[in-house]
Write the structure tokens for this entry.
Amino acid sequence: YESKQRAGSYTRYGAEFDHHSPERLHLLGDLRRALDHPDAPGVNLFYQPQVRLADGAVIGAEALLRYSHPERGVVNPAEIIETAEHSSVMRMLTERVVDIALRQLRAWKERGYDLRMAVNVSVRDLQSPEFTDFLTERIDAYGVDAAKLQLEITESALMADPRRVLQNVQRLSDLGVGISLDDFGTGFSSMQHLRRLPVTEIKIDKSFVTTLIDDPDNAAIVSTTIDLGRALDVEVVAEGVEDENVRKQLEGWGCHAGQGWHFAKPMSADAFERWMADHRKHN
Ligand code: C2E
Ligand code: MG
Ligand code: MG
Ligand code: MG
């Protein structure tokens, strides 16, 4: 099973992660070629709804990368980011993701959907000031409100070069872009980042959320994080909401919004629109 997985896709690696393995270099080369192309063949975004728990309204979407390799099929995004992050491909990839996401945000706005768009960014992007320039230019070009864009930053990303990252995040925040701490609770310095960065949102990691009904420790972590968000006046979004019991519990604790399979899996832009229309009817 293991060898079949490794031969057929890039989905699983253990501790022996190797950036220079032939498979990695191959993937990197193929990605670069795809991104050099104006249409970036194979590079797509899926969208997963974020739902306000109090009334079930769809408040926005998280854009999630889906890269389908000509021979290997869809490659796990986490694998792609790990591979690309150490090269200039990361920047190309993020710019492409931002461009597609903002264009989609604009299209939905024109069709009367008042949504916000969450985009994941990598350490690589936050270390260079050019990314902020790029983002500013794109927001302008598409005529979308900066406050409708939410950048999801993971803690590991923040550790790399705190001062430079901090400067760039501050600039983005000054533009009005929302700053979300992704996978909150899984890193080493969640609280420091919360104090130092202009955070507008905390995203509780799914590893705490999925099991909170049966795991009292996770329940304590989640409910305390929601209280913390309220005390600091920062919105809290729970990821990995897989069933109604979890949704109800989160709502009871006053969590602002949720995202997860209970509502919908990540899907194409077309499927997302159909889902929204249907969700509105039943809500
Ligand atoms: P993330 O930002 O924490 O995204 C949430 C992940 O949880 C997504 O995995 C999503 O498909 C998955 N998920 C959503 N609902 C549920 C649920 O109810 N249960 C469970 N078990 N999982 C759920 P995905 O799409 O495989 O993405 C994995 C990670 O890859 C993301 O984690 C993010 O860190 C990274 N990523 C994805 N797209 C991009 C991108 O465009 N740029 C960057 N830099 N990173 C990205
Ligand atoms: Mg995210
Ligand atoms: Mg997350
Ligand atoms: Mg996560």
